[in-house]
From TrEMBL, chain A:
The record's free-text note on cofactor binding: Binds 1 [4Fe-4S] cluster per subunit.
E.C. designation(s): 4.2.1.33
Functional description taken from the UniProt entry: Catalyzes the isomerization between 2-isopropylmalate and 3-isopropylmalate, via the formation of 2-isopropylmaleate.
Coiled coil: none
Amino-acid positions noted as binding [4Fe-4S] cluster in the UniProt annotation, renumbered to this chain: 349, 409, 412
Cofactor(s) the protein needs: [4Fe-4S] cluster
Pathway: Amino-acid biosynthesis; L-leucine biosynthesis; L-leucine from 3-methyl-2-oxobutanoate: step 2/4
NCBIfam families: leuC, PRK05478.1, PRK12466.1
Keyword Flavoprotein: no
Entry's Gene Ontology molecular function annotations: 3-isopropylmalate dehydratase activity
Family: Belongs to the aconitase/IPM isomerase family. LeuC type 1 subfamily.
Organism: Maritimibacter dapengensis
InterPro entries the UniProt entry points to: 3-IsopropMal_deHydase_lsu, Acoase/IPM_deHydtase_lsu_aba, Aconitase_4Fe-4S_BS, IPM_dehydratase_rel_enz, IPMI_cat
Name of the featured protein: 3-isopropylmalate dehydratase large subunit
From TrEMBL, chain B:
Broad enzyme group: lyase
Coiled coil: none
Reaction equation(s) it catalyzes: (2R,3S)-3-isopropylmalate = (2S)-2-isopropylmalate
Designated gene of the protein: leuD
Residue ranges constituting the Aconitase A/isopropylmalate dehydratase small subunit swivel domain according to the UniProt record: 1-123
Protein name (database record): 3-isopropylmalate dehydratase small subunit
GO molecular function, one term: 3-isopropylmalate dehydratase activity
Assigned keywords, A-Z: Amino-acid biosynthesis, Branched-chain amino acid biosynthesis, Leucine biosynthesis, Lyase
Metabolic or biological pathway, per its Swiss-Prot or TrEMBL entry: Amino-acid biosynthesis; L-leucine biosynthesis; L-leucine from 3-methyl-2-oxobutanoate: step 2/4
Length: 468, 201
């Protein structure tokens, strides 16, 4: 019999029921909840007179449309609709008795940063959330994916999800990364290779030396964007780095339970003879710092390249590239590193962790944000913010001229007041460059925190390898 | 949920690839705490100018497509967010079926929870259906879920695959939660076993 992949092992350990046609009820270990995709689900429970099946496994935190300005401390959310959503979550968390980190709590932050930080996310778990970037938690060797609101209600009511198994895809990054190349460049380079639909129907396992060498923060960045490649989830097998990160977190197991957990966690890897439905291999040393030029995460090129011509594509992509260039206000043939920017956004569930902020501080220490550029740093959680202040990073940011904000999703999706104006161009560490994503008619270039920091200082997209 | 049976309707052509959830329903409209009323903002940034006037070129603003119930779309429709507001907005507008060469995974699942049938067909079939949709309101396409076929106004038919469980639920308007609740003994048994094997969870 063929060996199992990591995905096979986690899947098999969570099937609560299997029907004759292969439809399974997958048991969910952790259900993360935020204010935007949950109100209709809780309302559905109320209407049907249902309870939350496992409130102890359900963790809620508002993040998508909370303001990130300092006046939030006064507890005021000016936008009425946003306030109604946050208040609905306050009430739903209380009424249904789930774990909750309200806006006023220092542990509040982006749900995908709070989960790992608090030790809710552990190897071998199934984790879901009404948010596509739930894939982030796969960095721990947890099977984690986004679900819609109907499924949120289903998990609340039954702690299970109706699922059919996905296929297995291996993405191997061999060798070492060159200086200036980061986890964000890996994950964008993979999407550039496979396309945004290349992972559809698959769960990806990232492996190889370059992945092993990443910190847990970097691994979270890689898995976070699995969804941008179309995959349901991205996974990385847990190792000593994973265990060291988890150990001592508030909700991680302790004592004898830790030992028992470790015994199982150490079995969580893909067997040598496991069967893969698709394999993609990239050489780590060939990956360059990359940026996106268009309106899909697959529109990615090395910073040293030129804006491409639509004629260089095939099929439906020709029209899409034409539309993208028009939307982005770019001419084919322009060197990417000459594109001027108006705004820099550093944060999000992709790159809002402490290591990301340290990278930024290294670049901007003693320098100034370019004239006319608005630059903001939004930490992923209240605890990341506190740590950055303790390490003196916040001081570096403020001296350089960055706005230093409170935790939330912020300009990644611009549901709160942090938005681009029409035509504004942003160097962003977030995950999506869709039309209108960061504000109506806003123009987004995705990149790593180091690249965004360099762009903030020079005022244009910049190769961090030659930045001084 | 309404039962999905045979649908005979106008199909609107949207050949653009990678139509994402931010295009389908921009985030400004995610702040609702209801499931209904989003149809007027479907494709908002493509459909209206900044002053809220309709952009005449946009397909669903054209007189012949205002009552479209079917979309024929480019590859990778529904990519991006997990927001169910996307199928809610489509359903509220009156879209009951979407045809493409591929769909993003979460969006695809979300459609079935809202009475919408997403249909995956090969490129050559989608090309024929796109051409048929371009004929406007004189062309009625037929989607027969029972038979798993789409038929053009000229009578050309294409068979599609759909998961048998999803088909069953859609045809009968069944509520997933109710069905899963019937399997509660299995869930209870799983929890008891998991509590032994992985007590730290």
């Amino acid at each position: 019999m063929a060996g199992k992949t990591l995905y096979d092992k986690i899947w098999d350990a969570h099937v609560a029921h299997e029907a004759d046609d292969g439809t399974c009820l997958l048991y969910i270990d952790r259900h993360l909840v935020h204010e935007v995709t949950s109100p209709q689900a809780f309302e559905g429970l109320r209407m049907a007179g249902r309870k939350v099946h496992a409130p102890d496994k359900t963790i809620a935190v508002p993040d998508h449309n909370v303001p990130t300005t300092l006046d939030r401390i006064n507890g005021v959310i000016e936008n009425e609709e946003s306030r109604i959503q946050v208040e609905a979550l306050d009430k739903n968390a209380k009424d249904f008795g789930v774990h909750y980190y309200p806006v006023s709590d220092v542990r509040q932050g982006i749900v995908h940063i709070v989960g790992p930080e608090q030790g809710w996310t552990l190897p071998g778990m199934t984790v879901v959330c009404g948010d596509s970037h739930t894939a982030t938690h796969g960095a721990f060797g947890a099977l984690a994916h986004g679900i819609g609101t109907s499924e949120v209600e289903h998990v609340l009511a039954t702690q299970t999800l109706i699922q059919k198994k996905s296929k297995n895809m291996k993405v191997e990054i061999t060798g070492k990364l060159k200086p200036g190349v980061t986890a964000k460049d890996i994950t964008l380079a993979v999407i550039g290779e496979t396309g945004t639909a290349g992972g559809t129907g698959y769960v990806i396992e990232y492996c190889g030396e370059a992945i092993r060498d990443l910190s847990m923060e970097g691994r979270m960045t890689v898995c976070n964007m699995a969804i941008e490649g179309g995959a349901r989830a991205g996974l990385i097998a847990p190792d000593e780095k994973t265990f060291a990160y988890v150990n001592g977190r508030p909700h991680a197991p302790k004592g004898a339970q830790w030992e028992a957990a470790m015994n199982w966690w150490k079995t969580l890897f893909s067997d040598d003879d496991a069967q893969w439905d698709k394999v993609v291999t990239l050489k780590g040393e060939e990956i360059e710092p990359v940026v996106t030029w268009g309106t899909s995460p697959e529109d990615v090129l090395p910073i040293s390249a030129l804006v491409p011509s639509p004629d260089s594509f095939k099929g439906g992509k020709v029209g899409a590239a034409q539309r993208a260039l028009e939307y982005m206000g770019l001419e084919a043939g322009t060197p990417l590193n000459e594109i001027k920017i108006d705004t820099v956004f550093i944060g999000s569930c992709t790159n809002g962790r402490i290591e990301d902020l340290r990278e930024v501080a290294k670049i901007v220490d003693g320098k100034k944000v370019a004239d006319g550029v608005r630059a903001m740093i939004v930490p992923g959680s209240g605890l990341v913010r506190a740590q950055a202040e303790e390490e003196g990073l916040a001081e570096i940011f403020e001296k350089a001229g960055f706005e230093w904000r409170l935790a939330g999703c912020s300009m990644c999706l611009a549901m709160n007041p942090d938005q681009l104006a029409p035509g504004e161009r942003c160097a962003s560490t977030s995950n999506r460059n869709f039309e209108g994503r960061q504000g109506y008619q806003g123009r987004t270039h995705l990149m790593s925190p180091a690249m965004a920091a360099a762009a903030a200082v020079t005022g244009h997209l910049t190769d961090v390898r030659t930045f001084n | 949920m309404d039962k999905f049976e045979t649908l005979t309707g106008i199909a609107a052509p949207m050949p653009l690839v990678n139509i994402d959830t931010d295009m389908i329903i921009p985030k400004g409209f995610l702040k609702t705490i209801k499931r209904t009323g989003l149809g007027v903002n479907l494709f908002d940034e493509m459909r209206y100018d900044r002053q809220g006037n309709e952009i005449p070129d946009f397909v669903l603003n054209q007189p012949q497509y205002r009552d479209a119930q079917i979309l024929v779309a480019g590859d990778n429709f529904g990519c991006g967010s997990s927001r169910e507001h996307a199928p809610w907005a489509l359903a509220d507008f009156g879209i009951k079926s979407i045809i493409s060469t591929s769909f993003a995974d979460i969006f695809y699942n979300n459609c079935f929870k809202n009475g919408i049938l997403p249909i995956v067909l090969p490129q050559d079939a989608v090309d024929v259906l796109m051409k048929d949709a371009e004929k406007g309101s004189n062309a009625r396409m037929i989607v027969d879920l029972e038979a798993q076929t789409v038929t053009t106004s000229d009578g050309e038919s294409f068979s599609f695959e759909v998961d048998s469980f999803k088909k069953h639920c859609l045809m009968n308007g069944l509520d997933d939660i109710g069905l899963t609740m019937e399997k509660k003994p299995s869930i209870d048994a799983f929890e008891a076993k998991a509590a032994q094997e992985r007590p730290w969870v």
